[in-house]
Amino acid sequence: MRRIRTNGYARGVRTTAVAAAGVVALATLTTGCKIETVGAAEPTAAPTGSSAGPASARPTSAQPTDDAKPGGGATPSATHTRTPSARPSPQPSTLMSVGDRTKRVRELQARLRQIGHFDRSPTGYYGTVTVASVQSFQGKRGLSRTGRTDTVTWERLLAMTRQPTAKELDPPAPAPKAAKPDARCMKGRVMCISKKSRTLSWMIDGKVVSSMDVRFGSQYTPTRDGSFSVYWKSRHHVSTLYDSPMPYAMFFSGGQAVHYSSDFAARGYNGASHGCVNVRDEGKIASLYAQVRNGDKVVIYW
Q: By the 8 A CB rule, do 164 and 114 touch?
């Protein structure tokens, strides 16, 4: 009987020990689940910027991370400096170009003439001859051959030349060699125009008051020959047919007139009119316009 109690007691002790161990294990397991639940959810990718964890999970210089972006907490493996882009140089502004008619253009032409780039008297009109002269100057100085006078071209020209004198700006025109007047020009007030000598002589009672160079129409738009009379004067006239200026116009036959031509002043005899009698000396045509009256004769002859 005593032995049986002893064995039973031993079994009871073992049973109690096993039960206690189970409780401890259950308590341990329950405690571990509780920690896992309270902690952060399992990341779906390896964490970055942390020294914890296996080496294979740590970012390397070959593995870009968010920390490598500007503003990231970690120092990037390579330093990228942002070089400011160089601003393009501003384009020089244009001061004078084709079609301008100013005192500054006259100064430009006089200065170009000083250094051999303009072989005519200044007119103040920026035409094709002036364009070619500016291109020649620009080419010699290594500038863009635009033919326009921009700030760079003008400053370079100013540095190489002096202020033109009054005679350089407006040199006296050589007196044209007028032809022998036609017989119809010997009486009264007459604009006596010779196609052979290309001159206009303003005559009063057989005496020449003034003479000037003139240009005529082309073979397709010829200037009419004959005896006419001035029927209309228009100081600031613009052609309704060609939309071109005709200053100091004195009409004598239909749409044909004696008038100042800036193109004639710029290009000389390289061009032609549309039938009118062109005068290139603006001072002389202005004086003539002030003297001529409606009804005065116009004689055009060879």
A: yes
